[in-house]
Write a structure and sequence with these properties.
Elements (H helix, E strand, L loop, with lengths): L3 H13 L3 H16 L6 H4 L8 H14 L9
Amino acid sequence: MMTLTTLEQEILTQLHHLALAQQREVLAFVRTLTTMPVGIPGKELLAFAGTIEYHDLAMLQQAIESDCAKVNLDEW
C-alpha cells in the first residue's frame, strides 16, 4: 500500500521526467480536479422523476439516436 508521502514522491519523480510543457499540462489537469463542482446527489433528483411527458422523452430519444455521435468532417 502506498502512503501519502510515497505517492507524492512518485508523482514528483514522474513529473521531473516530463518536459516543461507537459508539466504545465499536468498542473492544468490537477487544477481541474480541485475545481470540479460536487454536484447533486441522485436522491435529491428523484423528485423530478416522471415530470417529463412521454412524448417529449420520445422526441429527445429520436434526436439523440439520429444526431449524436455523428461526425461532420466538413466542420473542421
